[in-house]
Amino acid sequence: MMKKTLLGMTLAAASVMGAAALQADVKIGFLGGFTGPIESMTPAIHAGAQLAQSHINAQGGLLNGRQFVMPTGDTTCADASAASNAADRMVNTERVTAIVGALCTGATIASANNAAIPAGVVMISPASTAPAVTTLNDNDLVFRTVPSDAFQGQALAHLLISKGIKEVVGTYVNNDYGRGLADQFRRTYTALGGEAVEIVAHEDNRADYRSELGALSAHGVDTLIIFAYADSSGQTVLRQAHESGAFSRYVGVDGMASENLVRAVGARVVEGMIATRPGSPKLPGADIFAAEARKAGFDPSAVFSAQAYDAAFILALAVEKNGSDARQGLSQAVRAVSSAPGEVILPGEWEKAKRLIAAGKDINYEGAAGSHEFDANGDIQGVVVEIAFENGRLVTKGEVKF
User: Fold this and answer.
1) Cβ 26 vs Cβ 97: under 8 Å
2) Which domains does the chain possess?
3) Pick from 76, 276, 255: which is nearest to 177 by CA?
4) 269 phi and psi, to 5 degrees?
5) Euclidean distance between CA atoms 36 and 56, whole angstroms
6) Which strand (E) or helix (H) includes residue 106?
7) Are 316 and 304 in contact (CB under 8 A)?
8) What is the value of pTM for the model shown?
9) Strand-pair partners of 363
10) pLDDT tens, 219-250?
11) Is the distance from CB of 146 to CB of 128 less than 8 angstroms?
């Protein structure tokens, strides 16, 4: 009798443990540059992903009521070893199903090659813009909800020509991001009749860029373009360029689109500086996201926050479509939930999406930052907007059309 009682207790305990295992959290990780050259931008990007997480959990969670949790890892943005280690922890210790991130291109490439791709883990980056991501041998595992810098570089060139700026000098941070963006800009700008007199590389995290600036200023060109990051070399280059008095106009890119730049160098230095960054098209999802972001307490126009929302929401939809938290088959599910045809799902419409998926219906997510019809390389077409520093604030001026 005692043996039967013990056996019954054992089976009951096993049943409870099995039920708990079935209800385990679904993990989708977030890899970001919480320290390093974009540390002032990362909190808002993370907040965008967290907003998607909160919408999903408030509307029933994933896979029959399981909670969506989001462990984080710091890539530092600039250190490939740190990025690889953070991704390895996500993939092999946290056992995430997928990853939102990374943010900087070098971190995404290192994370993908050294951890995610070997383990079959899908990554969707909301911020890695360099063309090098397009050519990754990734087994269809790496996507991005932000357009390539091949597009942003073209947009910046067209913007300057439209403003009558026909002659520039510039400097770029010597990595995949800076190099790819500067190269695309130079090709397009030259083809449009502009003259990129000289654009030179610089190494990140140095205290002094006066030699590079001295060589550029010798050309007598008044417009300086800075392809760099606001929290590292970008602010130092800008400060020292202003101190030199050699330039009267400054131009930046998305890596410089941070109000922390104002705090670092002063409103007077950045006043009138223009830049480009990926933006959101005029779709219903953009307005929905903006309202929800304000309720959540962060700026909906913060660079890459809308793209992070979409990355997290798409991955969650793909898990639901896949029917489990398994890694296998997730990339096909990403394409299925984000592409036409199918009933449109807008940001926040998680209950509707779950109901349609359960009924075997096709869905098409139309997001906060775009439609996200991924091409064969996991890239999207997107929107680039002009921004300007005015009275110590970043102001969006409108879409760059070309």
Assistant:
1) yes
2) 25-147+282-365 (3.40.50.2300), 150-278+383-399 (3.40.50.2300)
3) 255
4) -70, -40
5) 30
6) helix 105-111
7) no
8) 0.89
9) 343
10) 999 999 999 999 999 999 999 999 999 999 99
11) yes
